[in-house]
Design goal:
Actin, Chain A, domain 4, alpha+beta, five-stranded mixed β-sheet, six-stranded mixed β-sheet, single chain, flat, Nucleotidyltransferase, domain 5, 349 residues, 12 helices
Amino acid sequence: MNKLLARVSYDVAVDLGTATSLVYIKGRGIVIHEPSVVAVNQKTGQILAIGEEAKKMVGRTPAHIVAIRPLINGVVSDFETTEQMLKYFIEKVHKRKYIVGPRPRIIVGVPFGVTEVEKKAVCDAAKNAGAREVFLIEEPMAASIGARLPVQEAGGNFIVDIGGGTTEVAVISLGGIVGAKSLKIAGDKMNADIINYIQDEYRLLIGERTAEEAKIKIGSAHTLKEKMEMPLRGRNLITGLPEEIMVSDEDIRRALAKSVKQIITAIKVTVEETPPELLADIMAKGIYLAGGGSLLNGLDLLIQEEVKIPVKIIEDPVTAVVRGAGMVLENLDELHDVLAEQETIKPPR
């Protein structure tokens, strides 16, 4: 019966990220790539917008309309809003007219080391959003599969997945995670670092979107060959009036230095704890970087200098987790062992 349902239903893989959510449809690939933001009217409790439309409202709405991120550090912090966001993504897929048939099976990526309560929250949200079966896969494993690393072979694979809310550092062999670290330091923390630095150094209050733009345009972890600058607009904390300043790549690098150092420390500790045979494999293959945070200019060079192991940024690192989850979805029988958990919805009697 399950095989028959699998043939006629649409199966979905979801990277439910702190900053961005991606949806993969079996046989179709990635069909949704939107911010993990929900705009809510606090007076009525009504959800006004989800995804890209909600992100446009951030910082530009009346006080009673708030933009909520239902996931913090990669785990569900607002159950009902997460459920609504998942429903929205599934319904949006419906509108694309790719799919007909019974309720789908869903694979969801979760950070390494989440608690049973946090796993249950994700499973329950997916079930209430319309899933027939829910599978969980740890994000380092999904990113490694998305990077096409030979995770099921007896050899060491080292992945660093720097997302919006968490950085996952993991060594993978024989379809399992041998050692790992999960840090609550990633893209969002870097944005906050920039906001705090500009506030302390220039007495200028800037928004999260402005900080992210600075990180993307002139942010770096390693000294650049050419100096880069960009204007930042915000409110002067002394006069209360609007002001524009010029900041350099050195400013942003200083702002990010502490968070970058903590990520590198986690990588070093994981290397130290890796069994020698696997470490020999990793020295030959290198460390692979995934996630949007891996695109920070010069981060790969700095890690390589500090850890003394070759570092490579995988192709299209932002979609690595959802691509990996999608590959598991396409080959569920063959790759079932890499999943962290499965929950099936029992039909009513």
